[in-house]
Amino acid sequence: MSDIVKKALAEFKLNLEILTFDESTKTASDAAKAINCEIGQIVKSLIFKTEDSQKPILILTSGVNKVNEKKAAKLIAEKIVKADADFVKNMTGFPIGGVPPIGHKNNIKVYMDKDLLNYNYVWAAAGTLNSVFKISTQILIQITNAEIICIK
């Protein structure tokens, strides 16, 4: 699955190294420990779905933050609920804990936690439960076409 992410990065003319670890990088804490970086530098790619239209929504958030679903729903203008594992896999092609910010099976609207802008570089999942890649926050915004929001 990292190959899908590598191909998606290449479409943006990005040749970023994907690191694969023996241990899991499924949680922000696990990833920060494996990489030896701040938890805040970990990008959590969280899939929600709109309650009425059942559309997938991707919220990229800093590893130290939790999404305030009520606040996010106001910004998105529709109530959202956390997606289950089957919905995530069907919409993105990736398992929960390995969802990258790009390379999904379907076109998904992306929102990005403004707290990620506190870092020049962040680490995102690369499609598996133990792979990540480092990317500039500014480039991440460009390639995901993310709308910046406050999710806390």
- What is the CA-atom radius of gyration, in angstroms? 14 Å
Q: How many beta strands in the DSSP annotation?
A: 8
**What would you call the structural class?**
alpha/beta
Mean residue pLDDT: 94
CATH superfamily: YbaK/aminoacyl-tRNA synthetase-associated domain
Main CATH class: Alpha Beta
Helix content: 25-40%
CATH overall fold name: YbaK protein
Indicate the proportion of strand residues.
25-35%
Shape: globular
How many structural domains are formed by the residues? 1
Q: Give the topology string: H per helix, E per strand.
A: HEHEEHEHEEEHE
Flag low-confidence runs. Answer: none
* Major beta-sheet overview: 8 strands, mixed
* CATH architecture label name: Alpha-Beta Complex
Number of helices: 5
Distance between the termini: 31 Å
Give a brief outline of the structure.
This protein has about 150 residues and is an alpha/beta fold. The protein contains five helices and eight strands; from the N terminus they run αβαββαβαβββαβ.
What does it look like?
There is one protein chain. This protein has 152 residues and is α/β, with parallel strands linked by helices. The protein has one domain (2-149): YbaK/aminoacyl-tRNA synthetase-associated domain (YbaK protein, Alpha-Beta Complex). It is 28% helix and 27% strand. Strands 1, 2, 3, 4, 5, 6, 7 and 8 form an 8-stranded mixed beta sheet that branches.
Structural topology:
Blueprint: H1 2-11, E1 18-20, H2 28-35, E2 42-50, E3 56-62, H3 69-76, E4 80-82, H4 85-92, E5 109-113, E6 121-125, E7 131-136, H5 137-144, E8 147-149
Parallel strand pairs: 2-6, 3-5, 5-8
Antiparallel strand pairs: 1-7, 2-3, 2-4, 6-7
